Amino acid sequence: MQAAVLLGAPGSGKGTIAAAVARESDFRHISTGYAIRQEMESPHSEIGIAARSYMERSEYVPDELALALVKGILVEAGRGAKILFDGFPRTETQARRLDSLLRDLGGRLAGAFLLQADEAVLVERLQGRRSCEGCGTVFNRVWNPPTVAGICDACSGALVQRVDDFEENVAKRLKLHEEAAHGLIRWYDESGRLTWIDATQDPEVSAGQILAVVKT
Ligand code: AMP
Hints:
single chain, 216 residues, alpha/beta, Rossmann fold, 8 helices, globular, binds adenosine monophosphate
Protein backbone atom coordinates (compact mmCIF):
# COMPACT_ATOMS: atom_id res chain seq x y z
CA MET A 1 0.00 0.00 0.00
CA GLN A 2 1.15 3.51 -0.81
CA ALA A 3 -0.27 6.80 0.35
CA ALA A 4 0.66 10.28 -0.80
CA VAL A 5 -0.55 13.45 0.92
CA LEU A 6 -1.42 16.79 -0.62
CA LEU A 7 -1.17 19.67 1.87
CA GLY A 8 -2.10 23.29 1.38
CA ALA A 9 -4.50 26.01 2.46
CA PRO A 10 -8.13 25.99 1.39
CA GLY A 11 -8.18 27.30 -2.18
CA SER A 12 -4.67 26.12 -3.02
CA GLY A 13 -6.12 23.74 -5.63
CA LYS A 14 -5.66 20.41 -3.84
CA GLY A 15 -8.82 18.89 -5.33
CA THR A 16 -8.08 19.92 -8.93
CA ILE A 17 -4.46 18.77 -8.78
CA ALA A 18 -5.28 15.48 -7.00
CA ALA A 19 -7.87 14.71 -9.69
CA ALA A 20 -5.25 15.36 -12.40
CA VAL A 21 -2.74 13.06 -10.68
CA ALA A 22 -5.38 10.33 -10.35
CA ARG A 23 -6.20 10.59 -14.08
CA GLU A 24 -2.56 10.03 -14.99
CA SER A 25 -1.67 7.28 -12.50
CA ASP A 26 -3.14 4.44 -10.47
CA PHE A 27 -3.42 6.62 -7.36
CA ARG A 28 -6.99 7.02 -6.12
CA HIS A 29 -7.99 10.55 -5.13
CA ILE A 30 -9.58 10.67 -1.69
CA SER A 31 -10.78 14.00 -0.32
CA THR A 32 -11.50 13.64 3.39
CA GLY A 33 -13.77 16.72 3.25
CA TYR A 34 -15.89 15.04 0.57
CA ALA A 35 -15.82 11.70 2.42
CA ILE A 36 -17.06 13.41 5.61
CA ARG A 37 -19.86 15.18 3.71
CA GLN A 38 -20.89 11.78 2.28
CA GLU A 39 -20.95 10.29 5.79
CA MET A 40 -23.18 13.17 6.91
CA GLU A 41 -25.70 12.24 4.24
CA SER A 42 -26.21 8.77 5.62
CA PRO A 43 -28.43 9.17 8.70
CA HIS A 44 -26.93 6.30 10.72
CA SER A 45 -23.24 7.01 10.14
CA GLU A 46 -21.54 7.59 13.51
CA ILE A 47 -18.79 9.57 11.79
CA GLY A 48 -21.37 11.70 9.97
CA ILE A 49 -23.34 12.40 13.14
CA ALA A 50 -20.22 13.28 15.14
CA ALA A 51 -18.80 15.50 12.35
CA ARG A 52 -21.89 17.62 11.69
CA SER A 53 -21.50 20.31 14.36
CA TYR A 54 -17.83 20.90 13.46
CA MET A 55 -18.54 21.08 9.74
CA GLU A 56 -21.39 23.53 10.31
CA ARG A 57 -19.00 25.83 12.19
CA SER A 58 -16.27 25.47 9.49
CA GLU A 59 -13.97 23.90 12.10
CA TYR A 60 -11.81 20.82 11.79
CA VAL A 61 -13.40 17.61 12.97
CA PRO A 62 -11.44 16.09 15.91
CA ASP A 63 -8.29 14.17 14.96
CA GLU A 64 -9.77 10.88 16.21
CA LEU A 65 -12.72 11.25 13.87
CA ALA A 66 -10.58 12.07 10.81
CA LEU A 67 -8.28 9.16 11.69
CA ALA A 68 -11.17 6.69 12.07
CA LEU A 69 -12.38 7.70 8.62
CA VAL A 70 -8.93 7.35 7.05
CA LYS A 71 -8.22 4.04 8.75
CA GLY A 72 -11.49 2.67 7.35
CA ILE A 73 -10.56 3.90 3.86
CA LEU A 74 -7.06 2.36 4.00
CA VAL A 75 -8.24 -0.98 5.38
CA GLU A 76 -11.01 -1.24 2.80
CA ALA A 77 -8.65 -0.25 -0.03
CA GLY A 78 -6.41 -3.22 0.72
CA ARG A 79 -2.70 -4.00 0.44
CA GLY A 80 -2.04 -3.10 -3.18
CA ALA A 81 -3.88 0.23 -3.05
CA LYS A 82 -2.36 3.60 -3.90
CA ILE A 83 -4.15 6.56 -2.39
CA LEU A 84 -3.61 10.29 -2.76
CA PHE A 85 -5.15 12.12 0.18
CA ASP A 86 -6.44 15.64 -0.39
CA GLY A 87 -7.14 17.46 2.87
CA PHE A 88 -5.55 14.85 5.11
CA PRO A 89 -3.54 15.13 7.29
CA ARG A 90 -4.45 18.59 8.55
CA THR A 91 -2.63 18.48 11.88
CA GLU A 92 0.71 17.17 13.10
CA THR A 93 -1.11 14.53 15.17
CA GLN A 94 -2.86 13.24 12.06
CA ALA A 95 0.47 13.14 10.18
CA ARG A 96 2.20 11.19 12.95
CA ARG A 97 -0.69 8.74 13.21
CA LEU A 98 -0.78 8.26 9.43
CA ASP A 99 2.87 7.17 9.60
CA SER A 100 1.97 4.59 12.30
CA LEU A 101 -1.10 3.44 10.40
CA LEU A 102 0.92 2.87 7.23
CA ARG A 103 3.56 1.00 9.23
CA ASP A 104 0.88 -1.23 10.79
CA LEU A 105 -0.66 -1.93 7.39
CA GLY A 106 2.70 -2.68 5.75
CA GLY A 107 2.44 0.41 3.55
CA ARG A 108 4.61 3.44 2.90
CA LEU A 109 4.33 7.16 2.25
CA ALA A 110 4.95 7.78 -1.45
CA GLY A 111 5.32 11.55 -0.95
CA ALA A 112 4.10 14.67 0.83
CA PHE A 113 3.37 17.77 -1.26
CA LEU A 114 2.72 21.30 -0.09
CA LEU A 115 0.82 23.64 -2.44
CA GLN A 116 1.73 27.25 -1.81
CA ALA A 117 -0.03 30.47 -2.83
CA ASP A 118 -0.54 33.97 -1.42
CA GLU A 119 -3.62 34.66 0.66
CA ALA A 120 -5.13 37.04 -1.95
CA VAL A 121 -5.09 34.25 -4.55
CA LEU A 122 -6.67 31.81 -2.09
CA VAL A 123 -9.51 34.19 -1.18
CA GLU A 124 -10.34 34.87 -4.84
CA ARG A 125 -10.40 31.18 -5.65
CA LEU A 126 -12.51 30.20 -2.64
CA GLN A 127 -15.15 32.79 -3.36
CA GLY A 128 -15.47 31.63 -6.98
CA ARG A 129 -15.59 27.94 -6.14
CA ARG A 130 -18.70 25.91 -7.01
CA SER A 131 -19.10 22.17 -6.25
CA CYS A 132 -21.39 19.62 -7.84
CA GLU A 133 -24.20 18.46 -5.55
CA GLY A 134 -24.19 15.12 -7.33
CA CYS A 135 -20.56 13.97 -7.68
CA GLY A 136 -18.49 16.56 -5.79
CA THR A 137 -16.50 17.77 -8.83
CA VAL A 138 -15.15 21.24 -8.14
CA PHE A 139 -15.22 24.14 -10.64
CA ASN A 140 -14.28 27.77 -10.35
CA ARG A 141 -16.21 30.59 -11.96
CA VAL A 142 -12.98 32.42 -12.79
CA TRP A 143 -10.20 29.95 -13.56
CA ASN A 144 -11.93 26.62 -14.19
CA PRO A 145 -15.54 27.33 -15.28
CA PRO A 146 -17.96 24.55 -16.30
CA THR A 147 -19.01 24.43 -19.96
CA VAL A 148 -22.56 25.48 -19.02
CA ALA A 149 -22.86 27.88 -16.06
CA GLY A 150 -24.27 26.18 -12.97
CA ILE A 151 -24.14 22.64 -14.45
CA CYS A 152 -21.53 19.95 -13.74
CA ASP A 153 -19.55 18.80 -16.81
CA ALA A 154 -19.12 15.33 -15.31
CA CYS A 155 -22.67 14.39 -14.25
CA SER A 156 -24.97 17.36 -15.15
CA GLY A 157 -25.67 17.91 -11.43
CA ALA A 158 -26.33 21.40 -10.04
CA LEU A 159 -23.30 23.46 -9.00
CA VAL A 160 -23.62 25.14 -5.61
CA GLN A 161 -21.48 27.29 -3.37
CA ARG A 162 -20.53 25.44 -0.20
CA VAL A 163 -21.54 27.19 3.02
CA ASP A 164 -17.91 27.13 4.14
CA ASP A 165 -16.94 29.12 1.01
CA PHE A 166 -19.23 32.00 2.03
CA GLU A 167 -17.17 35.13 2.66
CA GLU A 168 -17.46 35.04 6.46
CA ASN A 169 -16.25 31.44 6.63
CA VAL A 170 -13.33 31.81 4.22
CA ALA A 171 -11.33 34.04 6.59
CA LYS A 172 -12.02 31.64 9.46
CA ARG A 173 -10.81 28.61 7.50
CA LEU A 174 -7.64 30.34 6.30
CA LYS A 175 -6.79 31.31 9.89
CA LEU A 176 -7.43 27.78 11.13
CA HIS A 177 -5.17 26.38 8.43
CA GLU A 178 -2.42 28.87 9.25
CA GLU A 179 -2.50 27.81 12.91
CA ALA A 180 -2.51 24.07 12.31
CA ALA A 181 -0.13 23.91 9.35
CA HIS A 182 3.15 24.81 11.08
CA GLY A 183 3.61 21.55 12.98
CA LEU A 184 2.29 19.54 10.08
CA ILE A 185 4.71 21.04 7.56
CA ARG A 186 7.62 20.72 10.00
CA TRP A 187 6.81 17.01 10.50
CA TYR A 188 7.31 16.23 6.83
CA ASP A 189 9.97 18.84 6.09
CA GLU A 190 12.35 17.85 8.91
CA SER A 191 12.20 14.23 7.83
CA GLY A 192 13.11 15.25 4.26
CA ARG A 193 9.83 14.04 2.78
CA LEU A 194 8.23 17.33 1.72
CA THR A 195 8.06 18.62 -1.86
CA TRP A 196 7.06 22.30 -2.24
CA ILE A 197 4.79 23.09 -5.19
CA ASP A 198 3.85 26.52 -6.60
CA ALA A 199 0.05 26.52 -6.48
CA THR A 200 -0.24 29.50 -8.86
CA GLN A 201 1.15 27.59 -11.85
CA ASP A 202 -1.00 25.54 -14.25
CA PRO A 203 -2.52 22.63 -12.26
CA GLU A 204 -1.26 20.20 -14.91
CA VAL A 205 2.32 21.34 -14.21
CA SER A 206 1.82 20.79 -10.47
CA ALA A 207 0.33 17.37 -11.16
CA GLY A 208 3.37 16.52 -13.32
CA GLN A 209 5.73 17.42 -10.47
CA ILE A 210 3.81 15.16 -8.10
CA LEU A 211 3.70 12.30 -10.61
CA ALA A 212 7.47 12.52 -11.06
CA VAL A 213 7.89 11.80 -7.33
CA VAL A 214 5.18 9.19 -6.75
CA LYS A 215 6.05 7.16 -9.84
CA THR A 216 9.66 6.60 -8.70
P1 AMP B 1 -12.38 20.34 2.48
O1 AMP B 1 -13.42 19.78 1.55
O2 AMP B 1 -11.05 19.65 2.36
O3 AMP B 1 -12.26 21.83 2.43
O4 AMP B 1 -12.89 19.98 3.96
C1 AMP B 1 -14.11 20.48 4.44
C2 AMP B 1 -14.18 20.34 5.94
O5 AMP B 1 -14.07 18.95 6.30
C3 AMP B 1 -13.07 21.01 6.71
O6 AMP B 1 -13.30 22.38 6.91
C4 AMP B 1 -13.10 20.23 8.01
O7 AMP B 1 -14.21 20.64 8.80
C5 AMP B 1 -13.39 18.81 7.55
N1 AMP B 1 -12.16 18.04 7.32
C6 AMP B 1 -11.74 17.50 6.14
N2 AMP B 1 -10.60 16.83 6.30
C7 AMP B 1 -10.26 16.96 7.61
C8 AMP B 1 -9.16 16.51 8.40
N3 AMP B 1 -8.15 15.80 7.87
N4 AMP B 1 -9.15 16.84 9.71
C9 AMP B 1 -10.14 17.56 10.27
N5 AMP B 1 -11.20 18.03 9.59
C10 AMP B 1 -11.27 17.74 8.25
